[in-house]
Each structure stands twice: as C-alpha cells, then as structure tokens.
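Hey there, shall we discuss this one?
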Amino acid sequence: MTPVAEEKAGENAGEKAEQKAGQKAATRIPHHHPLRAEAVRGFAPSAGAAVLLTLGAMLAGSSARWQGGWAVTASEVHNALLITVPLAAAAGCWQGGRERRRGTEELWGTVVRSPLVRFLASAVPVALWAAAGYLVAVGLALLATWPFSQGDRPHLALLPGDTVAMAAAALAGHVVGRIVPTRLAAPLLAMAGYAGLGVVASGHSGSGARLNPAFPVLDSLEPVWWQPLAMAVWTGGAAVAAALAYAARRRATALLPLAAAVAAGALLVQSGDGLWHTDPLVRRQVCDTSTTPAVCVNARYAGMLPQVRDALSGITGKLEGVQNLPVRWEDRAGEPGADEAELPMLTPFGWSVVRGRLTDPRQYAWEAVAALEEHGECADPRVRALDDAVEHYLAPSPSEAYFDGVDAHGTAAQRAERRKRDAARDHLASMSERERRAWLSAYFATAGRCDTKGVPGL
C-alpha cells in the first residue's frame, strides 16, 4: 500500500471512530419529555408541597373537631377547598407569568413546539402536583381518623370532584397568569378566589351555590352518585376550555369542553336540593337494653356505646325499679319520641368527645339526668329545688362544689338557700330504697311539666 493510500485509510478509520464515539455519546444523553423536566425540577413540586402543608396545617389545628369520625373528616377536607382552590389557582397563575418575569417570551416564540404544547408543558405539572398535594393531605387525614373511628366507614364520594377542582383551578390560574401582566396577579387571584367562593358559599342556596366546588357540606349529608362526576366535568371542562381558547391554534376546539361544562353546570343547577340526601346511618342507632332507661347511640358512632353506658351506669343503677321513666335515651336526628329522652350530644366532636373518648363523663352524666327531668325552661323555685336534689343524688354536676362554696361564703340569703339545698339532698339520700323509688316515680311523672303536683316535699 502506498503512503497516500495509507494516509486516506487512516483518515477514514478516524472518521468512523469519531462517528461511533458520537453515537455512543448520543445514546448516553437522556432525552426527557418537557413535562418530566417541569414536573421534577420546576415550580410544580413546590406548588404541591404548598397545598399539602397548607391543608395539613389547617387539619392539624382542628384535629379535635374531626379526628375519629369518618363523615366529619370527609366534610372537613371538602370544606377546606375554600382555601386550597384559591391557593392552587395562585400557584398556576405564578407559573403562567414565569416567562414574562424571565423576559423569555420572544425566545419561546421561536421554538418548533406549538403554543398549546408549550402551554401544557408548563401548566399540566402544576395542576397535577396541586391535585396530588391535596390527595396526600386527604390520605393522611383518613389515616389519622382510622385509629379513633367509632363506627361508620370512610366517605370518599366527594373526593373525585374535589381533586379535579384543584387541578382545574391551577389550569385556569395559569391562563390568568399568561394574560395579566403583573407580578401581583397570583396573590390578587388568590384573594379574589377566596372572596368569591366564600360569598357564594354563604348564600347556602341558589344556582351559584350548586356550582361552587367549595360549597360547605354538613357531615350528615351525602351527594347523589353523579354529583361529583358532574362537578368534575363542570370545573374541569371550564378550565380546559379556557386553556384551549388561549393557546390552541384552532380556538374552536374550546367549544367541546365548554359545552360539556355548560351541560354539567345546568344539571347541577336544575337538580336543586336533589343533589344531596341524608346519610341513612344517621337515622339508625344501636342500643343497650339491659339498663333502665335503655342507652342508645347513633349508629355512626356505635363504638361509643360502652363508654356512654359506663358513664350513665351510676344513674341507671340508682333508677332500678323507678316508674314513669322514658324507655330510652335516644340519639337520632330530630326531637325525641313521647317515651324517649334525648341523649346528651356526642357531636360536634371537640366538646363532649375528642378522638373517640368522652372528655368529661361526670358532666355527661349530669346532662343525661337533666334530659330525664325536662325542666330546662321552668323557673319555679320548688321545681328547681327538687331538680337539684335529684341531680345531686343521681349525678352531681362537676361545678356543684364550686357553687356551693360560693353560696357558703355569700350573703345571708345565699347561705340560707345553701342550707335548704343541703337539707333536701340529705332527706332524699336518707330515704329507704322503697321510699326513694316511690318518691322518684312521683317526681319523674312531672317530667316536661313546670309543676310538682303529686310530688312530696323534701
């Protein structure tokens, strides 16, 4: 081989080696989708963390009010949309104004991707992260409720519609961020969203309330099966229509999601109060009939029955053999029946019950005795004196000793009143079992009446 041929062969071999090296290097360089880059390294994870931390802080601050009740937990996380939806919209708005703040709008206009693709690559990750942050917070709330639940089941019917509302708010906020040329757009949108949702929610009725994804829901209500789907189409369709109208080359494509949103909104508005129904479990109760009166608690909190029965055991033991008593303490919605007394309230949580436990069994027992007497609005001094003696015997109020001490060191009239109360209490306690049963039978015959006719004095 001549020197010239050898030189050309060497050059060809070098070029081939360089091409192979370039190909290997190209295979080592990862080609990530724009969505992945935005979702992993951009602002989107911070938006999801903001939603998670905000909702988590709200739930932690009010945990005594919902922890232990599945329906209350579902109502609490849904009603938090009043805060989280404007937060998601503000996050989307801030992301939407990013290129304007960086001064790269003209540069992005020169890339090959269409405006809609660029819009979605920036907006979708924030929407997904905001929804994910909400879902994680809800999951943690359900886990926090589970160890203290006293019955019922998780209520997840509203979750799909609420999650879509979070994503839709972020997407719509992104459109606002692209359109409004100011750094204050995000905080102003958050404040406007909070005010708007709050004003509509305060109406409690009307078409606006039915279209409001953050409409406050009582824990005793459940949506009809299609309400969350219709709400998802309403909020999601409106947000997608806004995005297409802004970024799509053929803006007429926005008409399809807009039509779906209008149809879903019309269905929500026209259904009126038919969107909600009372949880059937609210009307049921579980009872312990081994005592007199029987003790019943709402079926949603069936696990509370042993605690309530134990708290009232001192009363039911002393009432054995007494006549004219109600058949049971009841715990259903509405007024008690003619032969029933109302059980002291277990709900709302945070007062009598916190995390599945009675906070003050003595106070609870005293309230149960007052429910048996039914003399709450009676001002007759003799009736009040007899009520005090019966309450002292069956279940003294935790504050009784305090007020007795005040009267003992008060005016002459207060000291005299204290001596009368003590004498009546001592008289009832000193009776024989048979005499006391007869006296209590006569006393409970006056339940609900402001008179003491037929009741011997003490």
